[in-house]
Write a structure and sequence with these properties.
322 residues; mainly alpha; two-stranded antiparallel ribbon
Amino acid sequence: MFGLPVLDVAIGMAFLYLLFALMCTTLNEIIASAFDRRAKMLRRGIRTLVGSEQLVDALYRHPAITSLAPIEKRGAPLPSYIPASRFAQAITDQFPGAVPGTNAPKSETDASMDGATKQLKAMVERSRDPAELNNKIEDWYEQTMDRVTGWYKRYVQRQTYALAIVLVLWLNLDSIHLIQRLWSDSALRSTVVEAAKTRIQESGGAEPIPVVEYTEGDKSDSGRPVQTGTVTLTDREKELLASLTGWHDDLLSLNAQRQLRPGEKWQRLHWLSQVAKEHGLGWILTVLALSLGAPFWFDILNRFMNLRNAGRATDEPRSKTA
């Protein structure tokens, strides 16, 4: 049961989808970092929360928040993450005292803090001490951050679709063609399965999808968030992908047609229509697969490998030393 080649084909496709999805993740991270997408979306969420651009500017000038911004960037860099405790500290400092019973904003922001003032007044009136007030402000902030997280996830999903389409057309990633190659070529199938096994073993069971780390370990309230970098493919994985993808065969077909029928009008357009008919369905399947993301395919690959380890593939020797 477990030795059927179909399981190795499934492992191979899950592994290839994982590598392609990691490429999309890497591109997503590069774009997000280059254009400060996280930081800009965070500022947008805080602007929605407090209802005043003037107050947002005041909050971002507060030392508790400016210390979170990446110092290596020029201009006025924005932090990509603000802990709830830092936000509570920054916004209460916009009020004299910021203790229960005190709810008047500073004079310079009085005209522009209506939304925040109303919410803070209500929280001050329901709080018995400064600690309880801070907890309420943090809860208020975290509720909005949940919405910001949803905004960012939708943005990443839309961009992943766009990047998947570009990647699929650039590398000619036809799922149907890849399945056929893995099914018909046992040597290639074994190579892909071994590469998948190596990826699983080296990852320790957890795929290192990059987000942020903190300069003081897990103390997000004290450390400054920095990009961890991007997930890279090994040389062996790059060579494997290069051997499985590309336009080599299709371009050979185009050159053959041009030699057989030189000067034929609309020849290239006719070739493109043939390519679309041949690969279209496979391209669509690949785009849909990549849109599921690298964590999904890493989990699927883990499950398939565990299933395979319960038995022995038919094309494997009974002894590894044999």
